[in-house]
What we know:
Blueprint: H1 3-24, H2 30-35, H3 42-53, H4 56-69, H5 74-90, H6 92-98, H7 103-110, H8 114-146, H9 151-201, H10 206-209, H11 220-230, H12 243-258, H13 261-264, H14 273-291, H15 294-309, H16 330-336, E1 341-342, H17 360-370, E2 379-380, H18 385-392, H19 397-435, H20 441-464, H21 470-494, H22 500-522, H23 550-567, H24 573-583
Helix pairs in contact: 1-9, 1-19, 3-9, 3-14, 4-8, 4-15, 4-19, 4-21, 5-12, 5-14, 6-14, 7-8, 8-9, 8-19, 8-20, 8-21, 8-22, 9-19, 9-20, 11-15, 12-21, 12-23, 15-18, 18-19, 19-20, 21-22, 21-23, 22-23
Amino acid sequence: MDLQTLTYIVVGATFALYMGIAVWARAGTTGEYYAAGRGVHPVANGMATAADWMSAASFIGMAGLIAFKGYDASIFLMGWTGGYVLLALCLAPYLRKFGKFTVPDFIGDRYYSRSARIVAVICLIVASLTYVIGQMKGIGVAFSRFLDVDYATGLYAGMGIVFFYAVLGGMKGVTYTQIAQYCVLIFAYTVPAVFISLNLTGNPLPQLGFLSDTADGTPLLVKLDQTLVDLGFAEYTAQKGGTFNMLMYTLSLMMGTAGLPHVIIRFFTVPKVSDARTSAGWALLFIAILYTTAPAVGSMARLNLTNTIQDPAFDIGDPQGNLVYDERPDWFRNWETTGLLEFEDKNGDGRIQYYNDQNPEFAAMAEKEFGWKGNEMVKVDRDIMVLANPEIAKLPNWVIALVAAGGLAAALSTAAGLLIAISSAISHDLLKSTFMPHISEKQELMSARIAMAGAILVAGYLGLNPPGFAAQVVALAFGLAASSIFPVLMMGIFSSRINNIGAVSGMLVGLTSTLVYIFTYKGWFFVQGTNMLPNTPDSWFLGVAPEAFGAIGALLNFVTAFIVTKMTAPVPEEIRHMVEDIRFPKGAGAAQDH
């Protein structure tokens, strides 16, 4: 059976499964729409949380970053997993103890302020919409290649699927859909990794194959280092970025992970506080399966890509070693049609030169000795690496189709979680709790679904105009969550002294400073060419990249909140008692639902 037909069958079967679950688990009340009726088993919630959290950035983008950045991309592994541990230990059980539906719900009540609730909604929407761009990019990339449609058409199809099961099922439907999506995505990620590890190293475990020898007896990472150095690139295993920037980047990702509203609300769906802790542990286990595999996938993908274009049997510069463009393999032709892979014959020899022409010494040598005129792979979108890797490695068609289904499952699961968080914040926190307190439950449920539809349209527009590759865009979202939401949650739980004015001031300073920094170097609303300063390490403040500024924004948030609190009225006594009740629960029994 040909690849396209097989892909339609596999992807179509998974979509039918998702929609069938949505119909079976459709939400009939606001409690089911917002928190799945608080009846999800901890193991099931752990699996759903893993799918919610492991987005297109994890499935598609992270391995692409590892493939091209090497050691420097370890910040994503450390930041995202470390942040999840921070969330599980410091936030999830206490927020579940509080017993509300949403993150702004907690912030509004803890800081006894309608203004705090509204600012929290703004922070949530800004961070979540930025995050959902990466998911839409992943949906468009996967659809465009494997369903043989253009990027925009693929994105519209993904929007339609999300609209159906998220609007109909709410959190209840999304929860059980995400369980199915986790099974699909983890199987799709690990099966190709096993095949490729066997091909390259003879070891069936990618985590060990990554550290094993290739067929010629050379350790895989040593071989990859040498291959890249021969083409003018830096060593794969060498640190290339500044240490302070890596530290800030890691901290930003950690705090951003712990402040992600769509992940936090997953812990509102379990019956008890103890279940929140248990489901966090299960989620970490489910997440670890993919995250320990990602370094192997990234390194093997880069080695396969490079060896396909530059035959390792030939010395660098030997014209016979470069792939003839007219004889390029099918996978190359397939990805060219998507516009995510492009070749330009700069020296007119009909062969593909793939090397680092940004290395002045190597580029000058290559032009003088080999007659090369520049890197002819003018576009290699990093987000294609996981999806293209099975094709490059010549794996069976059913494996390639499975990877397509897995990439879509990862993007759809997180997109649905984000859209639930956005629609809940609008319908529950802005309408029901703030501006329209007298609407009925039926009207609130309808407003949640309308808000969801509106959020999908906005997310689709942003997905059509993405500012970068998936993991990079997601890193910006983590920075926004780190600078605005994470500090106010930590202070709200662990300090009974922070008052409403301090919390609001901290959120505004953290969010604004991070947005301004991103605008300065990335452009307003990510429009290329509108940045005020060049986006280069030399011009960054203290060498900190825009994606890493969230850690500094969080520090500004904390400092502002404490200073303003010292200068304004103290926290009311009943609020201080409420905070103490959250931090020191009487056992780990049923949470108090309000």
